[in-house]
Amino acid sequence: MKASFATENSALAGDEFRYDASALVGATPLTRFLSLIVAALFLNSILLIVLPAKPVVVAFIVSVAIAGAFSIPLRFAPHVILVYYSLEGLVKMLSNYHPVLHVSGDLLVVLFALRSVLDRGTGGVAKVAQTPFLPLFLLFSFWVLVQFFNPYSLGFIPSLAGLKIYLVPPLLLFIAFHHFDRQQLMPLTLIITALAAMISGLALIEYFWGQQFILSLSPAYMRATREIFLGAQYRPFGTTSLPGMPATWVALATPFAAYALFQKRVPLKQWQRLLPLVFFAVAVPILLICQTRLSMLQSAVGLLIVLAFNKKDLAKRLSYLTLFATIASAPILYKTYFGNWNTGFFATKQAEVISKRFRTLGTKEAYSKSRDNPLPRIWNDLQKMYILGLGLSRVGAAAGPWGDRIHNHPYFRDVNVGWADNLMIALFHELGVLGLFTYFFLYLKIMLRLYKNSRHQDYEFSHGTDHLFVWTCFAIALITLISGMAAEGALYAPVSIFLWLSFGLGLKEAMHARN
Fold first, then answer.
1. N or C: which end of the chain has fewer CB within 10 A?
2. Is the pLDDT of residue 369 over 60?
3. Could you write out the DSSP letters of every residue in 64-122?
C-alpha cells in the first residue's frame, strides 16, 4: 500500500514539473504561430513607447520570423530556409544591408536547430550523439571558437561576425539528417528547381528591362557593381545580392533538376515533369548573360555527373536535354546576339563580351592565369605568420566591414588578405593549418560515404536506398569542391546552404544502404 502510494506520488511529481509547450502556445502549428504573434504584438507595443517606429517595425518583422521558426514543423525547415535564401539577396539590397536583416537567415537556421535540440519528441539533446561525424564537427567547432583568443584577432565583434560563416551552415546537416524523410525528397527537389527557375526568369526580365531600372531601386545595387559590371559588362542580380549570382543558383540546381527529370522511383505528374524542362530552358541564357565561367563549368560537370550514374543512357539523355534547352531558349539567344542596342535590349557589345567569356571556357589560360595556384601562396604566407591563422573575418565577405582595421593592423600588413578567390587560402588565413586540415578532412569523409553508398550500386534504387539521389548530393559536394579552387563560395550562401543541406539529405538516404 505504501509502495503504491509512493509510486503514485512520484508519478504526480513528475507530471507536475514536466514542461509542455503545447499547453502554453497551442498544439497545432497555426495555434502556436498565432499565440506567438500575439505575444510579439504585445512586446512590440511596449517597445513603441520608448523607441522610434522604424526599429519597432524591424523588431516586429524579426518577431514574425521567430514565431514562424517555432511554429513550422521541423520536417519543413529545409523548404522554408531555401525559400528564404532565394529572396535574401533582394531583402538585403532593398534594406540597404540593414544589420538585422543581414543576419536574419543565420538566425532562422539557428532557431530551427535550437528547436530540434529541444524537441523531446524526436530525441531532444540525445539525438545530437547520433549525428554522423560528430567528433570531427566538435573538433572543427572548437578550433573556430579558439580563434576568438587569437592574438591577431580583429576583435570580438569581427570574430562574432566570422563565427556564423563556419558554424551556422553545418547546422543544416543536423536538421536535414534528423527530421527529413524520403517522402519529401521529390517535393524538395522540385522546390529547388522551381526557385532556381524563378530567379533565372526574374534575372532575364531584369536584363531585358534595362540595368538602369534595377540600379535605381537602391544605392546598394550600384555599390555591388563596383563600377565594373556596368554597360557591356552588366550582369543581372535577379533576387540575389551580387551581379551574376543567378548563375550560381543555376549551377547548384542543375544536379537536382537532372535527378527530377530522369529518376524512376517516384512517378511525376505532367506539370511536375515540365518544371525541370522549364528550368533547363532558362538556364542556358542565364549562364551566358551572367558571364560566370565557373558557374558554366559547375553546371556542365554537375549535369554530366548525375547523368553518368546510368552510363548506357548518358549520351541519349544528354543529347535530348541539350537539344531541348537550345531550342527552348533560342528566342532569348537570338535577342542576345541580334538585339538592338538603341532599344535597350541586348547590345552588340554585350553579345561580344558574352561570346568571349564563353569561348574562353575551354582554354587552359582561363584557369591557369585567372586564379593563382594556392599552394605557393599558402607557403609564402606560412613563412610570415604563425600556423594557427590570423583569426576570423580576415578574408572574404565577412572582412568587408573591417577593411580599415585589417589594413591598419600592426601585424602581417604584407600578408595578402581580402578576397582569397580560393577556399584553401581563405581557410588557412583565418583558421590556420589545423582549421584547414579539419575542414577538408570532414568534407572529404562525407563525400566518400556518399560515393560509396551510391556509385557502388548497379541500380538507381535498390535495397531501400535511392542511390541516384545520394549520387546527386555527391555531385553537389564535388562541384562545390571544384569551385573552391577559384572561389570561396563554400563558406557563403547560397552555396554553403546547398552544400550542407545536400550533406544532410545524402547521409540520411545513405543510411538505408548501410543498415
1. N
2. no
3. HHHHHHTTS-GGGHHHHHHHHHHHHHHHHHHTTS-HHHHTHHHHHHHHHHHHHHH-GGG
- Cβ proximity of 196 and 250 under 8 Å: yes
Q: What is the pLDDT of residue 192?
A: 95
* Least-confidence region, from 200-209, 270-279, 386-395: 386-395
In what helix (H) or strand (E) does residue 178 lie, and over which residues does it extend?
helix 171-179
List all residues 6 or more positions away from 154 whose beta carbon is below 8 Å from its beta carbon: 391, 392, 393, 394, 402, 405, 406, 409
Distance of alpha carbon 451 from alpha carbon 460, whole angstroms: 13
DSSP class of residue 462? E
pLDDT in tens, 109-118: 988 898 888 8
In contact, 186 and 266? CB cutoff 8 Å? yes
- Which letter does DSSP use for residue 238 in this model? T
CB burial string 414-431: b at 16+ within 10 A, e below = ebebeebbbbbbbbbbbb
Eight-state DSSP code of residue 160: H
Q: What is the pLDDT of residues 430-466, one digit of tens each?
A: 888 899 999 999 999 999 999 988 876 667 766 667 8
Pairwise CA distance, residues 377 & 232, whole Å: 33
Give the closest residue to 386 by CA, choosing from 427, 433, 436: 433
Q: For 466-512, what is each residue's pLDDT tens digit?
A: 888 999 999 999 999 988 887 888 888 899 999 999 999 999 988 86
CA distance 415 to 12: 65
Please give the grid coordinates belonging to residue 512. 538505408
Q: Between the ranges 144-153, 194-203, 306-315, where is the mean pLDDT highest?
A: 194-203
Residue 16 has what pLDDT?
Answer: 40
CA 2 remoteness from chain centre: 60
The per-residue DSSP string of 283-319 comes to HHHHHHHHT-HHHHHHHHHHHHHHHTTSGGGHHHHHH
Are 250 and 86 in contact by the 8 Å Cβ rule? The answer is no
**Residue matched to cell numbers 604566407:** 381
pLDDT at 131 over 60: yes
CB count in 10 Å sphere of residue 176: 24
User: Do 56 and 63 form a contact (C-beta atoms < 8 A)?
Assistant: no
Cα separation, 59 vs 52, whole angstroms = 11
CA distance 445 to 510: 14
Please enumerate in sequence order all residues whose Cβ is within 8 A of that of 296, keeping only pairs 6 or more positions apart, or say none: 247, 251, 287, 358, 361
Residue with cell string 543498415: 515
CB 371 within 8 A of CB 424: no
pTM for this model (two decimals): 0.84
Q: How far apart are CA 265 and CA 472, in angstroms?
A: 14
pLDDT band of 3, cuts 50, 70, 90: very low
For CA atoms 281, 286, 291, 296, the dihedral sign is negative
